[in-house]
Amino acid sequence: MPNLLSLLLLQFAHEVSRFEMPPGLRNVCTSSQWSQSVSPSISLFLLPFLCTQHRYASVLSGLSDNRSAYNKRIRRGRGPSSGKGKTSGRGHKGQKQHGKVPAGFNGGQTPDEVVHGIRGFTNVFSKDMVPLNLDKIQSWVDQGRLDPTKPITIKELAASRCASDIKDGIKLLAGGSERVSHPLNIIVSRASTAAIAAVEAAGGSVTTRYYTPFSIRGIIKGKIDPIHSLNSRIDVGEGTGERRVFENRLPDPTSRKEIEYYRDPAKRGYLSYQVGEGQGPSLFFRTPSTAKPAKKKVQSKVASGAENRMW
């Protein structure tokens, strides 16, 4: 029985060895009865864990912030030597000394925004695109953070931190286009004309496709395909293997403005295959034909037979 009790005490002491040993247990550890009840082999083996304590649980009381990490609170009204005594920094008399003044209050005269009015407005239909220059993509490729042999989509750009805080999409710009040295296959929301020309001059390709804020969040989480949708025919060189099945489907545009943008071959839209040869991307206006209009046939006024004559 004493051996069983000693083993239980040893296990308990081992669990609390990371913290400060209670005074009662320290007394038990150092008592002569404890050393006699425990076998010499076990006591010598566990002696460093039981009787030697170097760490304490009260380390939180010694934590302190770095110097100049915060400013000391100003104690007002504590004598003239502090510089904020007597009037506490408010000065003498007046509304600012006796009470509070609202922000932008002009003493009672008509506010400027009432006299002159508030001009301008916030366009609720604008898209918040993240600008991304070509030199940054080339720098990420040189560092090995992007693979130039695979399509570079929103998922790769977000995972490599090449673009962050993506809301409505990414617009590719031509900043540092002279540094592009790899044939890149880039798929983004929008792209400038100069950026398209620079990428294609290096042997790459640019494809613009439609994204929504919800689909961008799903792409980053790996729940939505970043390239393919029902109406897309983007060739990324995947081969004949089976395509991965995602939880949600990537949407296609439904508004006329978005459809016409991604139908435009000049913008490298992914719906440009729907536009026939010689036609424009507009859904309303038709491109006038270059062929000469056919002449209308003039019917002869000569009567075909005598039975049609009245006289």
Walkthrough of the structure:
The protein is mainly alpha-helical. The chain contains eleven helices and five strands; from the N terminus they run ααααααβααβββαβαα. It is extended and about 125 Å long.
Question: How are the elements arranged and paired?
Answer:
Elements: H1 2-15, H2 23-30, H3 32-37, H4 40-51, H5 95-98, H6 112-115, E1 129-133, H7 134-142, H8 154-159, E2 169-173, E3 185-188, E4 190-191, H9 193-201, E5 205-208, H10 213-221, H11 256-262
Parallel strand pairs: 1-2, 2-4, 3-5
Task: Provide the descriptors you would attach to this structure in a database record.
28% helix, mainly alpha, three-stranded parallel beta sheet
Specify the structural class: mainly alpha
Shape: extended
Distance between the termini: 144 Å
Mean pLDDT: 82
The strand order across the widest sheet is 1-2-4
Low-confidence stretches: 32-40
The H-and-E topology, N to C, reads as HHHHHHEHHEEEHEHH
Q: Report the sheet-strand fraction.
A: 5-15%
Largest sheet composition: 3 strands, parallel
User: Helix count?
Assistant: 11
Assembly state: single chain
> What is the rounded Rg?
40 Å
User: Which percent bin holds the helix content?
Assistant: 25-40%
Count the E strands: 5
